[in-house]
Design a protein that fits this description.
Strand order of the largest sheet: 5-4-3-6-1-7-10-9
Mean pLDDT: 92
CATH superfamily: Dihydrofolate Reductase, subunit A
Order of helices and strands: EEHEHHHEEHEHEEEE
Helix content: 25-40%
Distance between the termini: 19 Å
CATH topology: Dihydrofolate Reductase, subunit A
Number of strands: 10
Shape: globular
Structural class: alpha/beta
Oligomer: single chain
Largest sheet: 8 strands, mixed
């Protein structure tokens, strides 16, 4: 059975985007961090996006600029199977992408029941929030970035009940990022 993993960067005050939906603050690149990101991208999982994140990723990863900046990550992002959740998108033009138009929880339960690689949600706060509320997330990998935004959006805006998590791993980086890995308790 497939698992669903969340991989997201949050600010020190708990936001994944600022008040203007900007995430540029989250990109603290250095050789150590780039190696970690490339290692994460080398997995054989599938990617799950909401429509907004899909549009952002599709606009960057298939470009020559992405291939020049982070060739391993760009190659992996383009090759991986991708699923985009959208009520309006009917066809996707980024290679290996399938559009999911039905009820989100139902669609993800069906994907989890299939054989295949685990699914990783990148960005996509509303998808993270809905799947967390539906108890369909198996692991949370949160990158805490040492930036305070003051306001923005949280990953768990629509989660109405307390969810206790168990820390299974932590890793600090020289650029100030700390990666925290949690499982539902």
């Amino acid at each position: 059975m497939r698992k669903v993993h969340v991989y997201d960067t949050i600010s020190l005050d708990g936001f994944f985007t600022d008040a203007h939906n900007d995430m540029s603050w989250a990109h603290r690149r250095d050789p150590e961090w780039n190696a970690f990101v490339a290692g994460n991208a080398s997995g054989n999982g599938g990617l799950l996006f909401g429509r907004v994140t899909y549009d952002q990723m599709r606009a960057f990863w298939p470009t020559p600029q992405a291939a020049q900046m982070m060739p391993e990550v760009a190659a992996a992002m383009n090759a991986m199977p991708k699923y985009v959740v959208s009520r309006t998108l009917r066809k996707a033009d980024w290679q290996n992408t399938i559009v999911l138009n039905g009820d989100l929880a139902t669609e993800i339960r069906a994907l989890k029941a299939q054989d295949g690689p685990d699914l990783v949600i990148l960005g996509s706060g509303s998808v993270v929030s809905q799947l967390t509320a539906a108890a369909l997330v198996d692991q949370f990998q949160l990158v805490v970035n040492p930036t305070i935004l003051g306001q923005g959006r949280t990953l768990f805006e629509t989660v109405g009940e307390r969810l206790t998590l168990k820390l299974t791993k932590s890793q600090a980086f020289g650029n100030g990022n700390v990666v925290l890995t949690y499982l539902p308790a």
